[in-house]
Design brief:
Blueprint: H1 2-10, H2 29-38, H3 54-69, E1 79-87, E2 93-102, E3 105-113, E4 123-127, H4 146-151, H5 156-162, E5 166-170, H6 192-200, H7 205-220, E6 234-239, H8 241-252, E7 258-262, H9 293-298, E8 305-310, H10 318-334, E9 341-346, H11 354-369
Parallel strand pairs: 4-5, 4-6, 6-7, 7-8, 8-9
Antiparallel strand pairs: 1-2, 2-3, 3-5
Helix pairs in contact: 7-8
């Protein structure tokens, strides 16, 4: 029997040993969840609601979002545990730090510069998605698959420096140097264990990642020994799960001066609630009772906000991103910044699009400075 089941599965015809479901019976858990979801209207949504001052709404929504995600807005300056410096190819330079952002939580942070160039006056925090680690951002190969990722433009910290930014690369929890190595047996997905453990502690993995971004901001702009030029605007750029963390951080931390969210935007009700999610990276308990994705993007107003996605992205398709962006225009208009949200659809799949992204950044952020 086991051999027959394996053979049929390989042929794409898996054997179902259970009775065919009778009509008018709802047995799949998703059916119950979808029915409940369809009856929900987020209580704090700004979209379609007769709400007053946009600033007051943002304060209330941020408070609830921070509560649901377990985000920590600490003002403490992370302690530098150690640092080193490395010369990269083509005149780039990397200074690496290990910051203690919380008890027993250290974060590798890498500042990428090109010393012979004019000193940059803008900061770009760079966050990778689900892959081998932050080293891709400065073009380093550590695993065989890295060659393909770099060929598709994964070295976006080098791109940022070439565009005149000071690039700051954060190693996200569960990837690269921060992959799980202490559990006796890890799950196949690199994130699900940490996501589940965070939930047991009343937090979320994405909330912890956003907290890390804010802690690094504290360190970059510390009064004593700032690592970024004083008063320099700081924008956060992320792709895929890195984009999700970047978006949450920008929504919750108004000190961030802008957001570039690539391959990570769509309504939760149309994406995560409708597909498999083996990693749990973006799960926020109860979020649909309070806010939807357009509200979270709206918390970035009036700061420049660039959303970009591929038309054939199988995780966060551009059609969903466009729907969110169009809806969020209402919030940006209420904040007096209707021209500070931009959407870019690219013909392609789930990947970072360097040319379109940097062209959009130049147009949006240069106009925002004028």
């Amino acid at each position: 029997m086991a051999a027959q089941r394996r053979a049929m599965a390989l042929l794409g015809r898996p054997i179902d040993p259970y009775p065919r479901a009778r009509e008018n019976l709802y047995l799949s858990p998703s059916q119950s969840h979808w029915a409940e979801m369809s009856a929900i209207h987020p209580q704090l949504s700004h979209i379609g609601a007769a709400r007053g001052d946009i600033g007051e709404w943002q304060l209330e929504a941020r408070e609830k979002l921070a509560e649901l995600t377990g985000y920590s807005a600490s003002t403490t300056i992370p302690e530098e545990m150690t640092w080193d410096a490395t010369t990269l190819s083509d005149g780039y330079y990397r200074t690496s730090y290990y910051l203690r952002v919380a008890p027993s939580r250290d974060v590798p942070v890498h500042i990428i510069t090109r010393p012979e160039s004019k000193s940059p006056q803008r900061v770009m925090i760079c966050l990778h998605g689900t892959n081998s680690g932050a080293h891709l951002a400065w073009g380093e190969v550590r695993l065989p698959a890295d060659h393909e990722r770099l060929a598709r433009g994964a070295d976006f910290a080098l791109q940022a420096v070439a565009q005149g930014w000071l690039a700051v690369v954060i190693e996200q929890s569960c990837f690269g140097e921060r992959r799980e190595k202490q559990l006796a047996k890890c799950s196949a997905d690199p994130c699900i264990d940490a996501a589940n453990h965070a939930l047991l502690l009343g937090r979320t993995l994405i909330g912890e990642r956003a907290s890390d971004i804010s802690a690094v901001f504290n360190w970059l702009h510390a009064d004593s020994e700032p690592k970024a030029p004083r008063g320099s605007p700081t924008v956060v750029l992320g792709h895929s799960s890195g984009g999700s963390a970047a978006l949450l951080a920008a929504a919750l931390d108004p000190r961030l001066n802008g957001i570039v969210a690539s391959g990570c935007v769509g309504y939760w009700s149309d994406t995560i609630m409708r597909r498999a999610d083996g990693g749990g990276q973006n799960i926020i308990p109860g979020i649909l009772h309070w806010l939807e994705m357009d509200d979270v993007v709206g918390l970035c107003a009036p700061r420049p906000t660039l959303l970009i996605s591929g038309t054939n992205d199988h995780i966060w398709p551009a059609s969903g991103m466009v729907a969110v962006a169009d809806s969020t225009t209402e919030i940006f208009a209420a904040a007096g910044a209707k021209d500070r949200i931009r959407k870019i659809s690219v013909d392609g799949g789930h990947r970072f699009y360097p040319d379109e992204t940097w062209r959009g950044i130049a147009e949006l952020f240069n106009n925002a400075r004028s």
